[in-house]
Amino acid sequence: MPSAPYTSPLAETLAPHLLERFLRYVRVDTQSSRDGTGSPSTPGQLDLARILRDELVGAGLADVELDEHGYVTATLPSNTGEDAPVVGLLAHMDTSPDAPGAGVEPLVHRAYDGGTIELPRAGTVLDPERMPVLAEKAGHDIVTSSGDTLLGADDKAGVAEIMTAVAHLAAQPELPRPTLRVAFTPDEEIGRGAGRFDVERFGAACAYTLDGSQPGELQDETFAGIAVTVTVHGVEVHPGWAKGTLVNATRLAARILAALPSEELTPETTDGREGFIHPYEIHGTAGRAVIHAIVRDFDDERLERHVGLLRRTAEEVVAAEPRAQLELDVQPQYPNMRRHIEGFPEVVEAAERALRAEGIEPVRTPIRGGTDGSLLSAMGLPTPNLFTGGHEYHSVREWASVQDMASAAATVVRLAEAWTRMPARAGA
Ligand SMILES: [Zn+2]
After folding, report:
1. Which residue of 142, 244, 371, 422 has the fewest CB atoms within a 10 Å radius of its CB?
2. How far does the centroid of ligand 1 lie from the alpha carbon of residue 357, in Å?
3. 140 near 402, Cβ under 8 Å?
4. What is the mean pLDDT of residues 299-324?
């Protein structure tokens, strides 16, 4: 069987360089760590940052910088002489701490036959029966790990696509482009990527993260997220003479969990636009028990209602035992980006034009999670998310399609052109 066709001659032209970059980047261990106190949280991210810095210089970009926190930035100046807005392109360099990330040895399965892919290590199998998206990709050139690590398409697919697109634009000055600002960021997977991003210094009017999956994905809506920590204080006494005095905090925490809805409002019973309350970690002794939960919804009011339900449930359980005490810590994590993007419709419109120019129909699905763009949008840099062609993130079954990654790189080239043709907006 011949390999599946590309979405355009441009995508086909970009594919070999793109794949070569991708295979090089995924071999660098850039796994971030929730326990890391520095920025970046792990030194491997700086190894990739240095490679990218040198390659950006080599490709002829200007203002190439690697700052002390591991952020790589660069500029490709406009070649149209017109004042289109400055457009940012972002991807994160780190990989998830939730699966092994060191020693990635990528494999390319040319012209995938649509069957089960057995990887050489750890008995890892990619089964199209269980992975309907993989089943759609018969004929594609599929990249996987060797089975004992993640692949790192999240988000080195995005990194390689942006690098390939800007290198192509730099080498082809006849292709029109606005001033492009590139940023490769550390520590997205541990939620610290956007926090240290200097939006003002970056100087873009809007940006795009390349951190999605299926071709056409254009996401300008994310969950809003809140983290809640519930702490129950009991009364700890030697169990041998505890009668009438011991108040077991762990039992109270278990009662709180049992009293929360389980047939609805959980990640395992919801999809689409439904939110949830998700207790994901609990540790306790008789004296003290702590429940860590995340609460998610697309709508701020409903999000507050879910937090209220968790609070009331905890209060009611603990109120039944007057000697116990309850503490509740509520921390906003990220907002739904839609609120911060809807005032700039041209940002989504330019992306839709770019996708259609590549022959891809835009798919506007809300993200049941956050992206770096959620925070960046709230920080004044409207940043929707585009597809990358990678799937099964944060697992040893992670895979990516070369054809789809090439479509993403081609879409970035077309996005540059789209911005040189966007009508100037009154008051913008
Ligand atoms: Zn990602």
Report:
1. 244
2. 25
3. yes
4. 97
User: d(Cα 298, Cα 296) in Å, to the nearest integer?
Assistant: 7
Indicate which residue of 29, 55, 94, 372 is catalytic. 94
Rounded to the nearest whole angstrom, what is the distance from the C-alpha of residue 188 to the centroid of ligand 1? Answer: 7
Q: How far apart are CA 11 and CA 388, in angstroms?
A: 13
Distance between CA 345 and CA 335 in Å, rounded? 18
Spell out the residues 6+ positions from residue 243 whose beta carbon is closer than 8 angstroms to its own. none
d(CA 61, CA 243): 73
Give me the chain's average pLDDT, please.
96
Residue 427's pLDDT is what?
41
Please tell me which residue in 141, 161, 188, 297 is annotated as part of the active site. 188
Query: 259 CA to middle of ligand 1, Å?
Result: 34
Q: Is the dihedral of CA 324, 288, 277, 222 positive or negative?
A: positive
Is the per-residue pLDDT at 18 higher than 70? Answer: yes
Task: Label residue 68 left, alpha or beta by phi (over 0 means left) and psi (-120 to 50 means alpha).
Answer: alpha
Q: Residue 258 C-alpha to ligand 1 middle, in angstroms?
A: 33
H or E stretch covering 46: helix 44-58
Q: How far apart are the first and last CA of the chain?
A: 51
Q: Please tell me the distance from the alpha carbon of residue 360 to that of residue 275, in angstroms, as a whole number.
A: 30
Average pLDDT over residues 332-345: 93
Residue 26 alpha carbon to ligand 1 centre in Å: 13
**pLDDT average, residue stretch 64-83:** 93
How many residues are present in the chain?
Answer: 428
- Give the contacts of 175 (CB within 8 A, at least 6 positions apart): 168, 169, 413, 416, 417
Strands 288-297 and 276-284, sheet pairing: antiparallel
Q: 209, 224, 231, 326: which is closest to 282 by C-alpha?
A: 231
What is the structure's pLDDT at 84? 86
Question: Taking a C-beta distance cutoff of 8 angstroms, is the pair 122, 167 a contact?
Answer: no
Whole-structure pTM value: 0.90
Active-site annotation holds for 94: yes
188 has catalytic annotation: yes
